[in-house]
Design goal:
14 helices; alpha+beta; Uridine Diphospho-n-acetylenolpyruvylglucosamine Reductase, domain 3; 3 domains
Length: 455
């Protein structure tokens, strides 16, 4: 087994959006029964119809005339049942592209169905870039913003914090336009709305001049990594680490701005690394001490890896291997204590092999942002597709909640309306605006009704 396979992010290039399960083909708007499933196939539904409007007018007509619940779908990469409905599923795939950019104001106006990889390519072509990106590039802009999707960086906020203005079609088919200066309350609600206020059609976002990054990856024993994590997050523009279960090692990943023009793109070892960790589990899963011993013999802790490229080519990748995931965001001061407990709980289960991800995110003011008014640490735990994943919720969830964790809206959790209200100071304000925007609850499926406490 090649030792360097134990490195994680190694610069996989963005692939076509059509690789993702749940993708819908652009087609004329014709009502038809539609079977939908998400990327990991854990969420499925039989919808009455799929609609793919090409512009706001077609979308407005659809919302005025559709019967039953209407839910939007992006890349289908959420693990929670945000999409499933027996009514109408709407894809904005035909409403895609960069509409305009303003280098004086450093903003760009983007259509809501645009995939993140496409946004990055188009912006790079005019010398601009998004400030930060999540680690998966196939998501749609509206889906990523509406669920609080984020990257990593102690001084970098989640994507939705850069939305300065947006257009939204209400459930009644009216087009509203909000901006931060004139509608601060509406924007605070709409930035992370789970698709419950209406359908976002475009967003104007802050951008930065395009830039390159220099990535460094190295291995350290977990205890050492936990001691250094806070300082490393302060030192680097982007910092995160992955813990490799039953090895005792964590892989640190740091990105910093790079002024050079050379490009260094090593072959991605992500899939091989996962395969090796799975083999260790399959061969020695019943003998955890032997599994750790074998991993120690196979890992060279002094190995490092580097890459240099445009920011978007290093920060975001595709994930060919499917999984299910839970992710919580805890107050930054609780991050290390929480992750220690999560690791201990994970290693009570011999079948675990997927790396656990630890990131840093700066707080913002969106009402339903998991980072509302607090800097946070994000802890994400994965289970392989086709294997048991319920423990992510039943066993790990209580640990996250003990440390004040707020769930990622697109990742598995079982929090109730009462529990969520206690975690979000502006929860009731959001519910009041949602009721005003959608009094009949046409944008609510059973999952959202349960979370919002709507009968």
């Amino acid at each position: 087994m090649k030792q360097r396979r134990l490195f994680l992010k190694a610069g996989a290039m963005a692939a076509a959006a059509g690789l993702l399960a749940g993708r819908v083909q652009a087609a004329p708007m014709q009502p038809r029964p539609f079977r939908w499933k998400n990327w990991s196939e854990v969420q499925q539904c039989q919808a009455q119809s799929l609609a793919t409007p090409a512009d706001e007018q077609a979308l407005a007509d659809l919302l005025r005339n559709a019967s039953g619940t209407v839910r939007c779908v992006g890349a289908g990469h959420s693990f929670t049942p945000l999409v499933p409905t027996n009514g109408t599923i709407v894809s904005l795939e035909r409403m895609s592209g960069v509409l305009s950019h303003d280098k004086a104001a450093m903003t760009a106006t983007l259509r809501a169905g645009t995939r993140l990889a496409a946004i990055s390519r188009e912006l790079d072509g005019v010398g601009l870039a998004l400030r930060n990106l999540p680690d998966i590039d196939l998501q749609s802009l509206a889906g990523a913003v509406s669920t609080g999707t984020h990257g990593t960086g102690a001084n970098l906020q989640a994507m939705h914090a850069d939305v300065m203005a947006l257009r939204l079609v209400t459930p009644q088919g009216q087009v509203v336009e909000w901006d931060q200066e004139r509608h601060p309350e509406q924007m605070a609600a709409a930035r992370v709305s789970l698709g419950s206020l209406g359908v976002i059609t475009q967003a104007t976002m802050r951008v930065v001049p395009s830039f390159s990054l220099h990535r460094k990856v190295w291995l350290r024993p977990l205890g050492e990594m936990l001691e250094q994590a806070g300082e490393l997050a302060r030192k680097h523009r982007h910092f995160e680490f992955y813990y490799l279960p039953f090895t005792g090692y964590a892989a640190a990943i740091a990105h910093d701005e790079y002024q050079g023009s050379d490009v260094l793109v090593p072959h991605s070892q992500d899939e091989e690394m996962l395969s090796d960790l799975r083999k260790l589990r399959d061969w020695l899963g019943k003998f955890p001490d032997l599994r750790r011993w074998a991993a120690g013999k196979l890992i060279d802790p002094d190995l490092t890896e580097e890459a240099k490229n445009r920011s978007w080519k290093l920060l975001s990748t595709v994930r060919p291997t499917r999984f299910n995931e839970t992710e919580y965001h805890v107050p930054r001061e609780a991050g290390i204590a929480c992750v220690r407990e999560i690791v201990a709980a994970l290693e009570k289960r011999n079948e675990v092999f997927f790396p656990m991800e630890f990131r840093f995110i700066k707080g913002d003011d969106a009402w339903l942002s998991p980072f509302h008014k607090r800097d946070s640490c994000s802890i994400a735990v994965h289970a392989a597709h086709g294997e048991a994943y319920e423990y992510l919720v039943t066993e790990l969830g209580p640990i996250f909640r003990k440390h004040g964790g707020r769930p990622h809206w697109g990742k598995l959790h079982n929090l109730t309306a009462k529990e969520l209200a206690a975690l979000y100071p502006r929860w009731n304000d959001f519910l009041a605006l949602r009721q005003q925007m959608d009094p009949q609850g046409r944008m609510l499926n059973p999952h959202l009704r349960s979370m919002f406490g709507v009968a």
